[in-house]
Amino acid sequence: METFLFYLFGTLMLGAAAMTVASRSAVAAAVWLVFSFVCAAGVFALLAAPFLAILQILIYAGAIMVLFLFVIMMLQGPVLPAEVAGRSFGRKALLALPAAAIAVILISWAARGREAAFGAAPVTGTAAAVAELLLNRYLLAFELISIVLLVAIVGAMALGRKQEEQP
Amino acid sequence: MTVGLTHYLALAAALFLVGMAGVLIRRNSLIMFMSIEIMLSAANIVFAAYARLHGDLAGHVFVLMVFAVAAAEAAIGLAILVEIYRLRRSVNVDDLNTLME
Q1: Which of A68, B18, B21, B55 sits between 20 and 30 A of A164, alpha carbons compared?
Q2: pLDDT digits over A86-104, tens only?
Q3: Of the candidates B42, A101, B10, the residue with the CA atom closest to the CA atom of residue B1
């Protein structure tokens, strides 16, 4: 069952990510990316990380992608002259295929005979267990990341405000 | 064959490659941003897979950190993008070559 779910979520996630990269329109790319993130939440659930799975959907598929879609709507209103059709995009994508094939071969070659199996009993990453660690051992990192977010908020506001005319 | 660490690492590597290809091939900066999110997502899967291997939840804590960094990156990056669009009327990175000339 776990094997089946891994291949299901893994394939869907990879395919959706590939569609994101290959989509001509930015809105289609964003919707594919949301799908890819939902599948990533499934992968987290398989890795005994239910808290991360929920946060992945809330933060990534919810908040971050809404931000993306808002910006796409803002920019696409006038014109979003997407890459001119043709313009060597197809040729580059064709070049990417052998590169991806070589990469897959290299990865599977490097991984041969080293099937590290997981331990029998997983430590489940529930909200309580992760919070315990986050607010004790990693309290400093937790506080620092809040500063990063604060700086991001201030920076986004500074960048987004209307420019005043120079006197 | 049971699914082990290697499978998750291979999935993450493939995802990272897809994201990297997106950054390298696409010229639409919005889609380049999305490709960066794909690469961060690949890193998250590696964190979670090793947390599962060692039975240590520290990996989960750092996935949370990556979430926060991704959110900050998206907020600032998209604000910069909107500002560039106001100035240049374009989000195509090929049009942003002022410093090259």
Answers
A1: A68
A2: 455 566 666 666 766 777 6
A3: B10
